[in-house]
Design a protein that fits this description.
It is a single chain. The chain is of the alpha/beta class and 469 residues long. The protein has three domains: 59 residues, no CATH class; 325 residues, Aldolase class I (TIM Barrel, Alpha-Beta Barrel); 37 residues, no CATH class. 49% of the residues lie in helices and 11% in strands. The chain contains 20 helices and eleven strands. The strands form two sheets. It has an eight-stranded parallel beta barrel, surrounded by six helices. Strand 10, helix 13 and strand 11 form a beta-alpha-beta unit. The longest helix has 22 residues. It is globular, with a radius of gyration of 22 Å. It starts with 5 loop residues before the first helix and ends in a 15-residue tail after the last helix. 46% of the residues are buried.
Length: 469
């Protein structure tokens, strides 16, 4: 069930719209009946105007309940000064059933008094999951309200990446598209942005400094842009990347070369607070012919050494681990032990959802993949490998069908995910981080009018045409 008309959305007995604000008459009924309906409307409605009104209503009401999108930067700055170093922040990519799975995250966090976790969405995921930044953040905020979670909410743009081939073909167009995506994300309450220009590292050049020069230059360029557009009194946390995930493992000389160049280019501006490196993982894992995942050879020594260097020499929070969700369970406790500041988790959550999908729906999805993604099949790739590597591409086209699953089935998925989050949060040692987050992170309310939401585009930066240089 969802709001099918603007009149139904704007006029009802539970709340009223008055003087460009939302007045809730009965908070219990609102939480019980209206929140789920707003979430369903955001996903299922075909009306862009109704969706935009929902975004505005969500933003206004969640602010009133102390649910404030925030930057994790001050927490990371404190970590960079060696104030604490005993936990790893999970950054969680929700590719489907975002509202239901976010509720599971908040339930897990409340059990252990945790607040040091991030919701994120990568540039590529915005496209293939059909979730624009404003839709994603609105569902996260609604989930927090539904589960009575009132700590700062960290929402992050993951892998806001420069496409190397596009950059070499038309660098102005590629830069403008990424700037537009960053602007859209910041407008959608993403106050944490990971810049990934590591795709432009040129290992054919003679020295490490020369290899990293373009990566450093563009990371500094986008840092300056973010500082120009960030809301007043909010310092957006920014991450950099020196090692493309799936490539060779990073070394200290690369971190030093990047930071020397980067700090010189940004001058007195606040810079990045963490650094993504390569330690032996691959996004989604390496799929074996039978569809299972090969055991990754993760180099914790590299992670430890570079995290220590990042903290001690540059006061960064430490290093970031990508491509980790499909690692064996016994690996996760080693991340806090080795100074990992943040770990990005995505594919395993998607895998759990697929395990629960009805067989007829999965067969329909797999048939769609064969019809629409066959050009992505690699030579000698088995059918199991092909399905595993491409099935994320079906989450956007089948988003409404997945969201329209029965409430009982979605609850089963949410409970299974809650157990997964319980495990992850325990292994990453984020219990009792609520007080620490509240000590360093002071939420700032960004005033936004209804008109702001009514005129805001919700497309995702990769769909933007070049507008300005």
């Amino acid at each position: 069930m969802f709001f099918k008309t603007e009149n139904e959305l704007l006029h009802n007995d539970v709340y009223e719209i008055k003087n460009d604000t939302v007045i809730i008459h009965d908070s219990d009924i609102f939480k019980k009946k209206v929140i789920d309906k707003l979430a369903a409307t955001i996903i299922l409605s075909d009306s862009s105007s109704i969706k935009r009104l929902c975004y505005w209503i969500v933003y206004i009401i969640t602010q009133k309940y102390g649910i404030i999108p925030s930057s994790i930067g001050e927490l990371y700055k404190a970590r960079g000064k060696n104030k604490f170093n005993q936990f790893t922040v999970p950054a969680i990519n929700l590719r489907t059933l975002t509202y239901d799975l976010a509720k599971a995250v908040f339930r897990s966090a409340k059990k252990i008094n945790a607040a040091s976790f991030i919701f994120e969405l990568a540039k590529s995921e915005i496209g293939y999951t059909a979730q624009c930044p404003l839709e994603y953040s609105s569902l996260i905020l609604l989930a927090a309200m539904k589960e009575s979670y009132h700590c700062p909410i960290f929402i992050q743009g993951d892998h806001f990446q420069v496409n190397a081939s596009n950059y070499l073909e038309n660098k102005d167009k590629e830069i403008v598209q990424l700037k537009n995506l960053i602007q859209e994300a910041v407008d959608a309450h993403f106050y944490n942005i990971d810049i990934d220009s590591s795709t432009l590292v040129d290992v054919s050049k003679e020295t490490i400094e020369q290899q990293k020069e373009l990566n450093c230059h563009l990371c500094a360029y986008f840092t300056k842009f973010i500082r120009q557009i960030q809301p007043q009194d909010i310092e957006i946390s920014i991450g950099g990347e020196i090692g493309e995930v799936g490539g060779k493992n990073s070394v200290p000389q690369e971190l030093i070369a990047f930071m020397q160049c980067y700090l010189k280019e940004i001058g007195p501006l606040p810079g990045i607070c963490k650094m993504s490196i390569q330690t032996g993982t691959t996004h989604g894992g390496v799929v074996l012919p039978d569809g299972s995942i090969a055991k990754a050879k993760l180099d914790f020594k590299t992670l430890n050494n570079l995290s220590m260097l990042a903290q001690e020499k540059y006061n960064l929070a430490g290093c970031v681990q990508h491509g980790a969700s499909t690692l064996p369970n016994e690996a996760f406790s080693h991340f806090p032990e080795n100074g990992c500041a943040e770990i990005h988790l995505a594919t395993q959550f998607q895998n759990i959802v697929y395990e629960y999908l009805p067989i007829p729906l999965k067969e329909k999805i797999y048939e769609w993949l064969h019809e629409n993604c066959e050009n992505e099949r690699k030579p000698n790739q088995t059918n199991d490998q092909f399905i595993y590597k491409t099935r994320k591409k079906a989450l956007g086209p089948f988003k409404k069908e997945i969201v329209s699953l029965s409430g009982d089935l979605k609850n089963k998925i949410s409970k299974a995910m809650e157990k997964e989050f319980d495990f992850m949060f325990d292994q990453l040692n984020i219990a009792n981080t609520k007080e620490l987050v509240e000590k360093y992170v002071k939420p700032v309310v960004v005033e936004k009018t209804k008109e702001h939401f009514l005129k805001q585009d919700c497309r995702g930066g990769s769909m933007y045409p070049p507008v300005t240089k």
